[in-house]
């Protein structure tokens, strides 16, 4: 299954950002089991994959901290969306 999402530089912060194109939510419990969790709140997770930290919002937005490689960030977004999008 291919999840459609937009990807680009965040206008307000110097980070990459991904957002679901269709309405959907992320299952934070599923994501929590697959990635190293740095911070957990009821509405978001901060996970670490390799050397990249990702802020995962339950409503489907991802923000990438400490990542200058757009290709790498986009690949991580694809993995997180494939692992966590609720149908």
Radius of gyration: 12 Å
In CATH, the architecture is 2-Layer Sandwich
Into which percentage range does the β-strand content fall?
Answer: 35-45%
Largest sheet: 6 strands, antiparallel
Computed structural class: alpha+beta
Q: What's the arrangement of strands in the largest beta sheet?
A: 1-2-6-5-4-3
The first-level CATH class is given as: Alpha Beta
CATH topology: TATA-Binding Protein
Tally of separate domains: 1
Q: Tally of extended strands? A: 6
Number of DSSP helices? 2
Calculate the terminal CA-CA distance, rounded to whole Å.
11 Å
Commentary on this structure:
This protein is α+β, with helices and mostly antiparallel strands. It has one domain: TATA-Binding Protein (2-Layer Sandwich). Helices cover 25% and strands 37% of the residues. The protein has 2 helices and 6 strands. The chain has helices at residues 28-34, 70-84, and strands spanning 5-9, 16-20, 36-40, 44-49, 52-57, 61-65. The chain has a 6-stranded antiparallel beta sheet, with helices on one face. The longest helix is centred in the last third of the chain and has 15 residues, at 70-84. The protein is globular and about 30 Å long. The mean pLDDT is 91.
List its traits.
87 residues; alpha+beta; TATA-Binding Protein; 6-stranded antiparallel sheet; 2 helices; 6 strands; 37% strand; globular
């Amino acid at each position: 299954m291919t999840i459609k999402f937009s990807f680009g530089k965040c206008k307000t912060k110097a980070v990459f950002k991904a957002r679901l194109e269709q309405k959907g939510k992320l299952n934070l419990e599923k994501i929590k089991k697959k990635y190293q969790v740095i911070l957990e709140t009821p509405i978001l997770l901060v996970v670490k994959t390799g050397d990249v930290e990702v802020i995962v919002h339950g409503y489907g937005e991802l923000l990438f901290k400490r990542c200058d490689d757009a290709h790498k960030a986009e690949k991580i977004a694809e993995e997180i969306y494939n692992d966590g999008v609720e149908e």
